[in-house]
TrEMBL record:
Protein name per its UniProtKB record: CHAP domain-containing protein
Compositional bias (Low complexity): 260-307
Originating organism: Enterococcus faecalis
Alphabetical keyword list: Coiled coil, Signal
Cited Pfam families: CC_PcsB (PF24568)
UniProt KW Signal keyword: yes
Length: 472
């Protein structure tokens, strides 16, 4: 059935509209999550750079401490070097003085000269010893001079080497620090850029959420307006159906009364006609009686013919004795006055056409609700399943179907959803194995009310037929 397609002509686009916003919001969430992940990576890199900078600063501090220590040692070494230089200079002065004394006084350091110039052997020995001692002292002085100079040069080179190494390491660490600072700035710029992008995407998401809420608000207002208009149209249609049913009942009563009056008039005429005793008249009388009898018979037969056709369409209302083998099923019991009024309203509506669309009177469900309302039976709003439960209706089996029951096609996978294939009919008669229904909007979009005898449920694939029985 197509009746539910027009029923949901507003609901389906609005659902698609909401899905479109949901899709946009999900896409924004994906972008925001991706940017957040990139920001986390950037923050982790910045943290790693900061840790590296801290370690580098520690290394620089360590090298600085070593350099300071070496500087202190250099100061001491320079002091030692200064002392050595003083001693060296003193020695050089002493050696220079000795050399000058030799030149001025004619003194010689030669052992031969000392022996030759001696006055005696003892003097010669003394002179030799003195010369040897002086020469030995001079030699020691020279050796000490050499050693002191070598020591100064070695210590100076060692300190200078260590200082150079420390300065090179310090320079390398300072360069690394500057590089880390640059890298940190770059990462912070990237992180700030990502934060700006995330803020922008978050703003778009907030905009979509706001637009969705506004659209939902407009949709709710439009649905409320349509429900109010549909309720008004339904009330008008119910009033028209009730008036039509009353008019049909009045016409049926009038026809029945006319038939009864005709029958009574014919009986009076028959009683007032004088009997003719002649033999020739006998035949005429016989013929007249035959005609009268025929007329009377025709009048009697006409009486049920004048009975309302609606009652003939609802055999349960005025049950006849069924033939053997064609007895009514257990569900074919009596019909309450309320359900009979609903059935009469539906039958009186057959042949009419109404507007279709969301909650319009030509929709199948709206029509059934209108017919039940004519009998004082409440069929509230809701889904193809929840609406019945909320109205106090109960499910019965198809084998127990009765006039006044409602057959609802619902989705087997989503019973409470208004989707294509949902359809609603009112059972107006049950006789033996034959079920009569009245339905609206079949074919879909026509809004036409029609009746169908020998009807049985034939839901589309994926749907099922559920029989609902209302109280009252």
């Amino acid at each position: 059935m197509v009746c539910s397609i027009t029923l949901t002509s507003v609901a389906l686009p609005s659902a698609a509209f909401a899905d479109e916003y949901d899709t946009k919001i999900q896409q924004q969430d994906q972008k925001i999550n991706a940017l957040t992940s990139q920001m986390s990576d950037a923050e982790a890199k910045v943290a790693a750079i900061e840790n590296d900078m801290v370690e580098t600063a520690k290394q620089i501090d360590t090298l600085t401490a070593k350099k300071n220590k070496l500087s202190s040692e250099v100061s001491k070494l320079y002091s030692e070097i200064s002392d050595l230089n003083v001693r060296i200079q003193k020695r050089e002065v002493q050696m220079t003085k000795q050399a000058r004394d030799v030149q001025v006084n004619g003194q010689s350091d030669s052992i031969i000269d000392a022996v030759l110039d001696a006055d005696s052997v003892a003097d010669a020995i003394g002179r030799v010893q003195a010369v040897s001692t002086m020469m030995s002292a001079n030699n020691e002085l020279l050796e000490q001079q050499k050693e002191d100079k070598a020591t100064v040069e070695k210590k100076t080179k060692n300190v200078e080497k260590q200082i150079a190494e420390l300065e090179a390491a310090t320079k390398e660490l300072n360069d690394k620090t500057e590089s880390l600072k640059t890298l940190k700035i770059q990462q912070e710029v990237a992180k700030n850029d990502l934060e700006a992008q995330r803020s922008e995407e978050q703003g778009k998401k907030d905009g979509f959420i706001k637009q969705k809420k506004e659209a939902e608000k407009r949709l709710a207002e439009e649905q409320a307006r349509q429900r109010a208009a549909a309720k008004k149209a339904e009330e008008q249609a119910a009033a028209q159906a009730q008036a039509a049913a009353q008019k049909a009942a009045a016409e049926q009563a009038k026809a029945t009364k006319a038939a009864n009056e005709a029958a009574a008039s014919a009986a009076e005429e028959k009683a007032a006609t004088p009997a003719v005793e002649s033999s020739t008249t006998t035949e005429s009388t016989t013929t007249q009686e035959t005609t009268t009898s025929s007329t009377e018979t025709e009048s009697v037969v006409t009486t049920p013919a004048a009975a309302p056709e609606k009652e003939k369409e609802v055999p349960v209302t005025n049950p006849t004795t069924p033939e053997k083998g064609n007895e009514a099923k257990p569900g074919n019991g009596g019909v309450t006055s309320g359900k009979q009024a609903a059935i009469n309203a539906a039958l009186a509506d057959v042949g009419n056409s109404y507007a279709t669309g969301w909650n319009q009177p030509g929709e199948c469900l709206v029509s059934v609700r209108r017919w039940l309302a004519a009998g004082g039976i409440n069929f509230g709003y809701g889904g193809p399943n929840s609406g019945y439960v909320a109205s106090g209706a109960t499910q019965v089996s198809w084998s127990n179907v009765q006039p006044g029951d409602v057959v609802q096609y619902e989705s087997a996978y989503s019973p409470d959803s208004w989707i294509g294939g949902v359809h609603t009919v009112l059972v107006t008669g049950v006789s033996g194995g034959s079920v009569q229904i009245v339905e609206a909007n079949n074919p879909g979009g026509s809004g036409y009310v029609s009746s169908n005898s020998n009807w049985s449920p034939a839901p589309p694939a994926g749907f099922r037929a559920v029989v609902w029985r209302f109280p009252g």
